Automatic annotation (TrEMBL):
Compositionally skewed regions (Low complexity) per UniProt: 616-632, 729-742
Protein name: N-terminal kinase-like protein
Gene Ontology MF annotations: ATP binding; protein kinase activity
Annotated Polar residues bias: 743-766
Ranges of residues in domain Protein kinase: 15-276
Start and end residues of each stretch annotated as Disordered: 589-682, 727-778, 794-835
Pfam family, one: PK_Tyr_Ser-Thr
Function: Regulates COPI-mediated retrograde protein traffic at the interface between the Golgi apparatus and the endoplasmic reticulum. Involved in the maintenance of the Golgi apparatus morphology.
Family stated for the protein in its record: Belongs to the protein kinase superfamily.
SMART domains attached to this UniProt entry: S_TKc (SM00220)
Regions of compositional bias (Basic and acidic residues) in chain numbering: 799-822
């Protein structure tokens, strides 16, 4: 029983008390200690401790008064109270973790950020004094760099509340005596000459806050010069900003009646060109009031925030702005526009904090049905992909991303294809080698947009190193040959360059029997930009075969990477196609190598997994899933014009594939119509005589603009019907409009087919592209060898020209007949009933 009464009562205090903050006890009646909540590791707090010594009752009463004030005063700029313990010998006060401003000033770097930050800190203390003087009718009496504290988010908090007095008629002129005596340097001059108070204005008489304004002036001086040693030093204005100097002189003026009200200080300094009018103060005040802002104001704010973050202190960005952005996203209606600044600030977090704060938001965002949100996520995937674990990507991210392959919006499909390059290193076998390739096969063969088909080929070339060796050997050649038969010229170039960049993955027997026979017809392609890489690639492959023919021992080294999981870049770069390999490894993966270490490049042979023959029953099938219902996607690109190329004849030795030209496919029936802009990653010269525009270098920024208008299969089918069928179908007005549209498409197709025979300024006309284009629409969605037409040419050129001429004559004849029928009927009058 006696042990119960004799036990240490401080054990009930829920915080562990740590070491002292050295030197603070010389500036306060308190001893400042570091601490943390019991049972936690990282929940740090600060503890103000006062231990009663003998008969020291005066300071003990001051400490009790301070505890009472800090419990009852709640304001964003006043020190935050957490808990306390009090008995007849000791007082403990736990607050948020802070550091005295007198120590913190030495840590602020001397750059452009310093003035912005000091303006924010002085604003906060002025706001706290306005709350005390005007709203609370109290006087602080202890403002200095030793009563102002800075928390982890860089906010200045007013403490030192032991001398706070309520203002009334009896004590309005009383200035208390302080302990320690070193604090008396901050007392105003009227303390020694009370007669000066008689000249005070009515406002100063009613609140007696002029002494606090004097101390605020001392705080301003100390913020720019360091601790105040002598009162006469206040006359030195050298380091005081010019925009603040007039107000500072009023604060430290000898006449109390001339010192301004703290509320007036805020009003004056928040005006244009005022000391408190800067980007940091505006940003933080907006975030404090973001819940009452409308959506237009929020959009304007977040659009301007991202470039401003570079001018803000890191601790403010990390602990003040970023939590506000996350809160605005989770509980407000900020939307996807908050992603740019949030991901930019995420770089300041360590891995543990990023996993705790940012990753849950990312996972939540990927499940959004808003197209704008998905588009922004896919565009910024590179900024946070290295923070996502393979488990999170495969189980939570990829199933959502895969819906984008089936989206009806071409922009989402295109960005989904490009995102695979960042996801591929962390995807498991089934997601990468089964699901991704299934979608790629469908997009490359059936997507109506030529740019998406091209980008699919580009992406496949980039992720080749991550594919399983057996899947890679089975898929690559078939996929690239399919691309070389695409009617869209940039897609043919993509197939050629992909073959060159992945040449180390092909057996020499495949080179001789499949690749070279597929490349040879492209040497007679109507587009010079297709012929040139075809010639160069053929020379490279022939060179490999010649070297092996002369020295058969080289075969093993040249085929060393065919069956390895991670081929050696050195071996690939030493070959004739090293320029293409360098483009893949250095250009696109440059940003990734800067943010995380590269995996070891030693090759490792893999056995063929069972799932290669029989996919796992737990695999995620996204090809049959319905497309997620989404809202309309905002148009994010202002430039929809056709981009040209800087990929000339002399640029093939550069270490990049560049950006492909966006010329419309001449074989497309709607090539003459306008097309929306998609991006690609190849840089080719689509027309040697056309004017070219420079695009950004590198794959990881701009993929160019490549899009092919969809081909209307119904109109094509109608255009091939005989004349009698067309005449019968025009028996009513609806049939008339449909036939008129069909005729327009046929005319465009005729014009495009005739323009296809141009040879970019060459003397001879090359008309052999139909061999590679005629059977494109008959291909399926799989990359199997038996689905491709033979490489050898089976129809003579003369027969092809004759058939083509007959088709054009037949189209012209049908057009003349239709025009004659329309002329015979005459125009129909509005409201007339057709007999």
């Amino acid at each position: 029983m006696w042990s119960f009464f004799s036990r240490d009562s401080t054990k009930d205090f829920p915080y562990e008390i740590g070491e002292n903050v050295a030197g603070f006890e010389e500036k306060s009646i308190w001893t400042l200690k570091k601490g943390k909540r019991k049972g936690t590791v990282d929940e740090a707090v600060s503890i103000f401790a006062f231990e009663k010594n003998g008969t020291d009752t005066t300071n003990f009463e001051l400490a009790k008064s301070s505890l009472k004030r800090i419990k009852t005063l709640r304001h964003p700029s006043i020190l935050q109270f957490l808990d306390s313990f009090e008995n007849d010998k000791v007082i403990y006060v736990a607050t948020e973790y802070i550091e005295p401003l007198g120590y913190f000033l030495d840590k602020i770097p001397s750059d452009n950020k310093r003035d912005l930050y000091l303006a924010w800190g002085i604003f906060q203390i002025t706001r706290a004094l306005s709350f005390l003087n005007n709203d609370g009718n109290m006087r602080h009496n202890n403002v200095s760099i030793w009563s102002v504290f800075v928390n982890t988010s860089g906010e200045w908090k007013l403490g030192g509340l032991e001398y706070v007095q309520a203002i009334d008629q009896h004590n309005q002129t009383i200035i208390p005596i302080k302990t320690p005596l070193s604090l008396e340097i901050y007392d105003p001059p009227e303390k020694s000459d009370p007669s000066k108070l008689k000249n005070s204005t009515k406002w100063n008489c009613s609140t007696s806050s002029s002494s606090d304004m004097w101390r605020l002036g001392c705080l301003v001086w100390e913020s720019f010069n360091g601790p105040l040693k002598m009162r006469n030093n206040l006359k030195d204005l050298e380091n005081i900003p010019k925009s603040l100097a007039p107000l500072y002189c009023e604060l430290v003026g000898a006449n109390p009646s001339n010192r301004p009200n703290p509320a007036d200080i805020i009003t004056r300094c928040r005006k244009p060109n005022g000391f408190f009018k800067n980007e940091l103060v505006d940003t933080l005040l907006f975030l404090e009031e973001i819940q009452i802002k409308d959506k237009a104001e929020k959009n304007k704010f977040f659009n301007a925030l991202t470039p401003q973050l570079d001018n803000f202190p890191d601790n403010v960005c990390r602990y003040k702005i970023l939590p506000q952005l996350i809160t605005a996203f989770e509980y407000g209606d900020a939307g996807s526009i908050v992603l740019n600044p949030m991901f930019k600030l995420g770089r300041l977090l360590d891995e543990g904090e990023y996993q705790k704060k940012i990753v849950p938001c990312v996972v939540k965002l990927f499940s959004s049905t808003d197209r704008v949100t998905r588009s922004r996520l896919l565009q910024q995937l590179e900024m946070f992909i290295h923070h996502l674990t393979p488990a999170v990507i495969n189980e939570q991210i990829f199933p959502q991303v895969a819906h984008g392959f089936l989206d009806t919006n071409a922009t989402i499909r295109e960005q989904t294809v490009k995102s695979i390059i960042h996801l591929a290193p962390k995807l498991n076998y089934n997601n990468l080698n089964v699901e991704v390739l299934r979608h790629f096969a469908r997009l490359q063969s059936r997507d109506e947009q030529g740019g998406i088909r091209t980008n699919t080929t580009v992406c496949l070339g980039k992720i080749a190193q991550h594919l399983h060796p057996q899947v890679r050997q089975r898929v690559l050649v078939s996929a690239f040959i399919r691309a070389m038969r695409d009617p869209f010229p940039p897609s043919r170039v993509a197939g050629i360059l992909a073959l060159a960049a992945t040449q180390q993955y092909f057996l020499l027997s495949e080179v001789a029997n499949r690749i070279l026979p597929a490349l040879c017809p492209l040497t007679a392609d109507p587009e010079k930009s297709v012929r040139e890489p075809a010639f160069k690639t053929i020379r490279g492959f022939l060179g490999k075969l010649e070297r092996v023919s002369e020295d058969p021992t080289l075969r093993e080294s040249m085929e060393a990477d065919v069956h390895t999981a991670t081929p050696t870049i050195g071996n690939a770069a030493a070959t004739w196609a090293g320029w293409a390999v360098s483009a893949v490894s250095a250009k696109f993966y440059r940003s990734q190598s800067d943010t995380r270490p590269r995996p070891p490049l030693t090759g490792k042979n893999l056995s063929k997994p069972a799932s290669l023959e029989q996919p796992s029953s737990s695999s995620i099938s996204t090809t049959t899933s319905s497309v997620t219902s989404m809202t309309s996607l905002e148009h994010e690109s202002n430039d929809t014009s056709v981009s040209a190329s800087d990929y000339g004849a002399d640029n093939w030795d550069q270490e990049n594939w560049g950006d492909m030209d966006t010329s419309q496919d001449p074989s497309s029936p709607m090539a003459a119509g306008p097309s929306t802009t998609l991006s690609t990653n190849l840089n080719i010269n689509m027309n040697a005589n056309s004017t070219v525009n420079d695009l950004h270098d590198g794959w990881d920024n701009d993929w160019g603009s490549l899009e092919e208008e969809p081909i209307n299969e119904e109109l094509e089918e109608k255009a091939t019907n005989d004349t009698n069928h067309i005449a019968a179908s025009r028996s009513n007005s609806n049939s008339q409009s449909q036939s008129h549209s069909s005729t327009g498409v046929c005319n465009n197709n005729t014009m495009n087919n005739s323009s296809l025979t141009k040879n970019n300024g060459d003397d001879t006309q090359i008309n052999s592209s139909a061999n590679s284009n005629s059977n494109w629409d008959n291909y399926g969605t799989a990359w199997n060898d038996d689905e491709f037409e033979p490489i050898e040419e089976t129809v003579a050129t003369s027969k092809f020209d004759e058939a083509r001429r007959k088709r054009e004559e037949k189209k012209l004849q049908r057009q003349r007949e239709l025009e004659a029928r329309r002329a015979a009927r005459g125009p129909m009058k509005l409201g007339a009933k057709k007999l």
